[in-house]
Write a structure and sequence with these properties.
single chain; about 325 residues; alpha/beta; 2 domains; 5 strands
Length: about 325
């Protein structure tokens, strides 16, 4: 009798745990079913074409770019990486003409730093048969904090792996994200006169139209050349990009994006020192047969810009042509 009572006491925690696990599994299954119903209802209401991009990262711009790459099913030999400096300032048609190729993808998105560029470069080199890499950059890219990015999710999504994509989708499921971005997705895809426009050309560039563009006065005058917020580690990752390209026979172009003349003319001596020190640091980091073009040494009329650093369509075309003309001269030296 004592033995039985002791066994019952011993088994009691096990029975409680089994009951708890059973309820937990039931709850999770119920939550999963409810989530599926909600997602199916959203898809039925909005249609698949109007849904937000999947939740690969904290940056919605980056998520949209991954969706674009999947839809276009590109296999580029030339890619451009970077932030909105690359996204908006590198003119696709000019790239195709100057490099005599139609195998190009602009993979850039808002707010990317050099650490993220390095990791993406390695991922895209794994996925594509790369030959050339282009970076358009400015000091601001060296001040950006790193974001959450699920690189494995991106890899399998672009490889059209439905099983792993489904597992990653469940792992990253955030109904708040999708609810928040349903309307925002439509806004960025259609707001042609706004800075947040994400309507891509066939190669992934976003052209900001000069005519009727809603220029924001704060952005028109905003820049940051204090120098105290530049992250030293970003130069280290630029070095990693340079070494990676050298070791893997990838031709690297680095185009330093300028500021509009009306703004640059007001820079203090200290701000010019910060800018020049940054440029010198890049030049000393890049290796032989890697082409650095410093466009800040030339004049860039305010009419070519939509803010302090981002070109309009005409400006992007002129800037890209200028950079390749300079690069050709460097090659022939």
């Amino acid at each position: 009798m004592v033995w039985w009572q002791g066994t019952r006491v011993y088994l009691l925690p096990i029975l409680i745990m089994k009951s708890f696990l059973k309820k937990l599994v039931g709850f999770l299954f119920f939550a999963f079913v409810i989530s599926c119903v909600l997602i199916a209802s959203i898809i039925a209401y909005y249609g698949t074409q109007n849904l937000p991009a999947l939740n690969f990262t904290d940056s919605y711009s980056f998520n949209e770019k991954v969706l674009f790459l999947k839809k276009q099913n590109l296999n580029p030999q030339v890619i451009s990486i970077g932030s909105s400096m690359t996204l908006n300032n590198l003119h696709s048609e000019t790239v195709l003409t100057e490099l005599q190729t139609n195998s190009f993808a602009n993979t850039a998105s808002w707010g990317m730093n050099l650490q993220e560029d390095y990791r993406l470069l390695k991922l895209f080199d794994e996925l594509y048969d790369l030959k050339k890499v282009i970076i358009v950059s400015n000091v601001i890219d060296y001040t950006q904090i790193s974001k959450r990015i699920d690189f494995d999710f991106i890899r399998h999504y672009l490889l059209h792996d439905p099983t792993y994509t489904a597992l990653s989708l469940v792992k990253n499921l955030d109904l708040k994200y999708y609810g928040k971005n349903i309307k925002y997705a439509q806004y960025v895809r259609n707001s042609t006169n706004e800075y947040e426009y994400l309507g891509y050309d066939p190669y992934g560039m976003v052209q900001l139209k000069g005519e009727n563009f809603n220029i924001n006065e704060k952005r028109w005058s905003h820049y940051n050349l204090r120098g105290n917020n530049i992250r030293e580690q970003e130069y280290v990752y630029l070095d990693s990009i340079s070494i990676y390209c050298q070791q893997n026979s990838l031709e690297l172009y680095y185009f330093q994006s300028p500021y509009r003349d009306g703004l640059k003319s007001k820079f203090s001596a200290n701000e010019m020192n910060v800018l020049n020190a940054h440029i010198n640091r890049i030049q000393s980091t890049l290796k032989d047969n890697q082409y650095f073009v410093n466009s800040t040494k030339s004049s860039w009329n305010d009419s070519l810009f939509v803010d302090a650093m981002h070109f309009n369509e005409q400006g992007a075309k002129q800037f890209t042509k200028f950079c390749f003309d300079e690069a050709i001269q460097l090659k022939t030296k």
